[in-house]
Design goal:
The structure is a homodimer. By secondary structure, the first copy, chain A, is an alpha/beta fold. Chain A has ten helices and eight strands. In chain A, strands 6-5-4-3-2-1-8-7 form an eight-stranded parallel beta sheet. In chain A, strand 1, helix 1 and strand 2 form a beta-alpha-beta unit.
Chain lengths: ~300, ~300
């Protein structure tokens, strides 16, 4: 019975950004300090735009050092650096094309590192001068995005990848940000060369300023989209912003209830990645302690 | 008398990141909505790694659109995306070399956009697996950094730039993070082809977890380094983290006291840039309102 098996809990390397940036640094932290063996790599640790020789060396190190430490790198995800840009929905079509190239390079890097799944948010349209935000993406923009997703899946397949992910974000200017939009997109890319799946995030689906005070759990996202969800991001948050706190911070997410929510919706076999960010100026030692405590809490709740 | 002239208050385009990303979008916001005419460009709006044709077009647009709106672009600064990486102090020497190339491209882009000053933080060494943080940079690392700064100044001069800035950050792993370190660095690069200056930030110099509870103003930084300060970043903060709040948020920085602090230390002629960041998921309209109110508050206090 799926219900009785432990959930697979891993960690996105977001907590390592600008700190434990090489596999020689993050692998012992993950395995020995946190007691975890499942990782989601972050492109904040290696930019696909770095020179080929550097990327080859880093990819080989990820492959070798993670194997040495008994760590599985499940997937590679877009981090803070690339998310800062408008990516595939920048107002300048040439910048979109370059974001497309960035993803192709990201796929090649993942493949070289032995990572077979890649994901992240797709892009954001620009803001208007008057601050008004559209409810939905323009249909032409949307069609262009779907065309790109199909093309990207071809490239991913050629690189030997097995799965791609879209991470819905709580922004009207990004896509998809609602459950029906996510469902529609998954239908529209259903024939892709490798499957596109969703990676919902606990702090995105519960952002109440956008979704309303009723958005106090991930239940609607999980119940509505379970068949197209390939991975999940978990974080502590207060539903007022996308906090990405660890579980030493008081918040609205109860880890045991989170585990039950996943199981209840048939997501007991989907890997769950803790994704936490810290201020750059915070000291290393307190971060290691907080992440280690959080890993214990989650392992306990998901067992 | 310098003391009686208004301080020059401008804005870093950090608040525009992923929102008002082209000059056609940010120039009317800055001029009409905020009533400001002095800007510090952020490389979060144009990555120097974008293809040459895109950068040429964007640089021309910055030059033309800012002129059309009566806006002076004083300088261009590293933003969140590039700050996410370890830059010139990454553990891999080849990644450092690439960060060096990134800066050279940043200088070329600034020059093409008619911007004659460029700055930002220089880089961070990686963290240790045990979380222990060194008090100071290894001397060999430091010497290498100074050598790079001198080489970068040559390149900046060749591009027609007039000034470069180091932004001290409150992190033991970056450099410089103390006043004596900043003084030493300014002495060590004193013969550079274009002058290196400091751009202290109100939320960096007052980060009490690093500097102690006595760090409750910028007075020591300004008094100790006024002769080598070329620009200042202002933000609202609580001295507990580098908040980058706007001045609609209650905090520990009093704008009138801040203006007096600048004037008292002979910094009445140095431009002061508001640098605020917002969560990606916050709605555009409330950001425009908060930044507009903040611009009014600062203009009033600095008049």
């Amino acid at each position: 019975m799926t219900e009785s098996r432990p959930l697979a809990i891993g960690i996105n390397l977001s907590f390592c950004v600008k700190r434990w940036v090489t596999p020689e640094l993050w692998a012992p932290v993950v395995r020995e300090r946190l007691g975890l063996d499942l990782v989601q790599f972050s492109y904040d640790l290696a930019d696909p735009l770095w020179p080929a020789a550097v990327l080859e060396r880093q990819a080989a190190a990820i492959r070798n050092v993670s194997a040495d430490h008994g760590i599985t790198v499940h997937s590679a995800f877009i981090g803070l650096a690339h998310y800062t840009f408008n990516q595939l929905l920048h107002p300048d079509p040439d910048v979109r094309d370059f974001a497309h190239v960035w993803l192709e390079r990201a796929y090649a890097f993942a493949a070289a590192a032995g990572i077979t799944r890649v994901g992240g948010p797709l892009g954001a349209i620009a803001s208007r001068v008057d601050g008004a935000e559209p409810e939905a993406l323009d249909e032409r923009e949307y069609d262009g995005l779907v065309t790109r997703m199909l093309s990207l899946a071809e490239r991913a397949k050629a690189e030997g990848l097995t799965e791609l992910y879209v991470e819905p974000t709580p922004m009207r200017r990004e896509w998809p940000w609602t459950i029906p939009q996510a469902r529609r997109m998954m239908q529209d890319v259903a024939g892709a060369a490798v499957p596109w799946r969703l990676c919902p995030d606990w702090g995105h689906g519960t952002f109440q300023p956008l979704y309303g005070a009723g958005a106090d759990s991930m239940e609607p996202w999980f119940a509505g989209l379970a068949d197209v969800i390939g991975a999940v991001h978990i974080q502590q948050t207060d539903f007022q912003y996308d906090r990405h706190w660890d579980f030493t911070v008081p918040g609205a997410v109860d880890p045991a209830a989170a585990a039950a929510e996943l199981r209840r919706n048939g997501l007991g076999d989907v890997p769950v990645f803790l994704e936490v960010f810290y201020p750059f100026e915070r000291d290393d030692r307190s971060i290691l302690e907080a992440v280690a405590t959080t890993a214990q809490i989650l392992k306990g709740a998901m067992a």
